[in-house]
Structure formats: structure tokens, C-alpha cells
Inverse folding.
């Protein structure tokens, strides 16, 4: 019995210790972000790497999501004789919800794991310590550039995913109803408001920051050699996805209150 209590107590202590370490990591990020030197070239390089790394998968997934969601929604609308509302439904669903969420989850798995594994391997092979010896701040060069890169790049990927999703949806509507693509986009954006676009932008920025900071934190604090690298990559994906779902709920509720007032 005492052994179980001891193990439970150790787990509680480890949990709060991890929360404290994450808090210090985020605080250090904001402190270091606005101090010189600014590694602009590395930031641009990371933005390019993140975009190229995730673009093919986002293109394929967004296009398939648009087609499948349109096919699944059509029978329900036809039962009520409201199939003409299908483009508007697709516009709201893809731009407000599916675009940011699908992109965030894909990048959490593709980009987050890559950041965690890359920084984790540098940590266990003592490359980070070598940078400190050579008078380079590894936190600014490795962490800050990657977090800002995900924060800036993922909103662009979100709108690209939404565009590709609407393209897939428009092709499905054209194939079934023989309606023009221009009419589809006019109807799709007729119900989208400025607040809806702001909500999508806020989601994408928050998701990007979450993916970057979680992946960097897990990788930068990796231990236990090569085993720790795999563990850091796995934890980066799981933690980022979990936080994205929590943030989705919170942001949707906040903007619901904004619309109410």
C-alpha cells in the first residue's frame, strides 16, 4: 500500500515539475524573442522547410476532405430539399472548422514530430552544448526560429488547405449538379463573415504556436539517448494534438460569445 502511495506521489510530483518546466520554457521564449540577434535567415529557412514538408500531404488531405464531406452532406440536405445550400454549408464548414483543424492535426504529426526528433537528436548528441561553447545561443537559433516559423507558416497552410478543400467540393458539386464553379464560390462565401475569417486566423496562429513550442520543448529537453529522441517525437505529436482539440473548444466558445454580444 505504501509503495502504491509512493509511486502515485512521485507521478504527481513529476507532473507538476513538467508543468513548471514548460512554463519556464514558454517564458524564456517570449523573453528571448525580442532580443538581438535576430536569426532572420534561419527563420526564413525554417518557414520554407515547414511549408515544403507539409504541403503535399495537406494538398491531398484537403482535397479528399472537400470531396468526402460534400458527398456525406448531400443526402441529408436532399431529404429536406435544401441541396442548393450545399455550397454555403461547405464554405462555413471548411473555412471555419475543417481547414484549421485538419491543417493543425497534419502539421502536429508531420512538423511537430520533425521538430521534436531534430532537436532531440541534437540534444542527445551534445550538439546543443557545442553551440553554447561556440558563443551561439542555441535557444534563440533553434527554438525561437522554429516556433515563429510554425506560427507564421501554418496560417498560410490553413488558407491553402481551405482553398483546396473548397476546390474538391466544387468539383463534386459540378459533377453532380452541373453548376458552374463561379456560382459555387459565390454561394460558399455568401455566408462567411469577417468574424468567421478572424476566427480561422486566430485558430491557425494558436495552432502554429502550439505545434512549434511543444515540439521544441520536447526535443530540447530530450534525454536517454536515441530512445529519448523517439520518445520526444511521439510526445510532441500527442501533446500538440491534445492541446489543439482543447484550443478548438475554447476558441469556438470565445467567438460564440463575441457573436452573441
Amino acid at each position: 500500500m505504501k509503495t502504491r502511495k509512493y509511486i502515485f506521489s512521485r507521478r504527481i510530483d513529476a507532473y507538476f515539475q513538467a508543468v513548471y518546466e514548460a512554463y519556464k520554457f514558454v517564458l524564456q521564449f517570449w523573453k528571448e524573442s525580442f532580443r538581438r540577434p535576430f536569426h532572420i535567415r534561419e527563420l526564413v529557412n525554417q518557414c520554407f522547410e515547414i511549408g515544403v514538408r507539409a504541403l503535399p500531404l495537406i494538398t491531398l488531405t484537403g482535397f479528399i476532405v472537400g470531396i468526402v464531406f460534400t458527398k456525406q452532406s448531400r443526402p441529408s440536405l436532399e431529404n429536406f430539399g435544401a441541396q442548393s445550400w450545399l455550397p454555403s454549408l461547405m464554405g462555413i464548414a471548411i473555412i471555419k472548422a475543417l481547414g484549421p483543424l485538419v491543417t493543425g492535426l497534419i502539421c502536429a504529426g508531420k512538423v511537430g514530430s520533425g521538430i521534436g526528433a531534430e532537436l532531440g537528436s541534437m540534444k542527445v548528441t551534445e550538439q546543443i552544448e557545442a553551440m553554447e561553447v561556440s558563443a551561439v545561443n542555441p535557444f534563440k537559433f533553434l527554438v525561437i526560429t522554429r516556433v515563429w516559423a510554425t506560427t507564421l507558416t501554418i496560417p498560410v497552410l490553413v488558407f491553402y488547405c481551405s482553398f483546396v478543400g473548397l476546390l474538391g467540393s466544387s468539383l463534386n458539386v459540378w459533377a453532380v449538379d452541373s453548376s458552374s464553379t463561379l456560382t459555387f464560390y459565390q454561394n460558399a462565401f455568401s455566408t462567411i463573415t469577417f468574424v468567421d475569417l478572424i476566427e480561422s486566423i486566430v485558430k491557425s496562429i494558436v495552432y502554429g504556436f502550439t505545434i512549434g513550442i511543444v515540439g521544441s520543448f520536447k526535443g530540447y529537453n530530450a534525454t536517454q539517448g536515441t530512445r529519448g529522441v523517439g520518445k520526444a517525437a511521439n510526445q510532441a505529436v500527442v501533446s500538440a494534438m491534445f492541446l489543439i482539440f482543447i484550443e478548438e473548444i475554447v476558441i469556438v466558445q470565445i467567438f460564440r460569445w463575441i457573436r452573441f454580444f
Observations:
- The chain is about 90% helix and 0% strand.
- Helices lie at 2-33, 40-79, 86-124, 127-133, 138-177, 181-190, 194-220, 225-260.
